[in-house]
Each structure stands twice: as C-alpha cells, then as structure tokens.
Amino acid sequence: MSVIIDRLDHLVLTVADLERTLDFYTRVLGMEAVTFGAGRKALQFGCQKINLHERGREFEPKARQPVPGSADLCFITEMPITQVMEHLGSCGIQLEEGPIERTGAVGPIESVYVPGPGRQFD
After folding, report:
1. Which residues contact residue 114 at a Cβ distance below 8 angstroms, ignoring those fewer than 6 apart?
2. Which residue, 15, 46, 71, 82, shows the most beta carbons closer than 10 Å to its own?
C-alpha cells in the first residue's frame, strides 16, 4: 500500500525581503497576506497558501539549505492572458518570456514568465 496524495496544502518559500515579497504577491497577483502562529506570514489564495521564511530568520522545520530565489512557481488564472499581461504592465512588471504554450499539470497552458519579487525592479 502507498500514500495517496489529494492536493497541495501549502509550500514554504525562503525570501530575501519579506515586505517586498508580500507587496508583490498581494498587489500584483491578488493574494491575501495572512498572519498565523507566532507572527508568521503567509500568502493565501484559493484553498492553498505559501508560508514565507525570511532568509536568516527561518522557522523550524525548514529546508536543509534554504535559499531565496530557488523556486519557480506556476499559477493558474481564469483571466484571459491578454488581461494578465495588461495588469502586469500596469504594475511595472516586465515579462521575461511569453505568452508561450507549456504543459501544465492537467494539460496545455499558455504561460507568461515574470521575475520574482527579488528581481523585478533590479
């Protein structure tokens, strides 16, 4: 017998700048910043959340080698890709790539790639 996974509940990102990360994901991507536990921060969207660890101030347990910028994330939206691109542009976010066809978890998707909050304004 093996374990059967139903869904992802949360993941943890180690970030260089907690406030910059919260701003990007709430202002640009519309997620909700939440505080839980002993003042920990997370980003809530749908039935998932992203817990945030700031580099050098990680919570236990943590990744063996927590490094900011080491994850690539793909989010699905119901908005047409043209509206997504317009919104990103209005937020001052330049696309790194796309729109481009990719293969998602359940089939074909159209993707745009944007720099994460640690790089978008460099």
Report:
1. 88, 93, 94, 95, 96, 120
2. 15
DSSP state of 70: -
- Give average pLDDT by consecutive 10-residue segment, the chain, 122 residues: 92 95 96 96 96 92 89 93 96 94 96 82 44
pLDDT value for 80: 95
For tokens 């998707």, name the residue.
109
Structure-token pair, residue 54: 């700031």
Nearest to 94 by CA among 75, 116, 120: 120
pTM value?
0.88
Pairing of strands 48-54, 10-15: parallel
- Residue given tokens 């991507």 in the structure block: 29
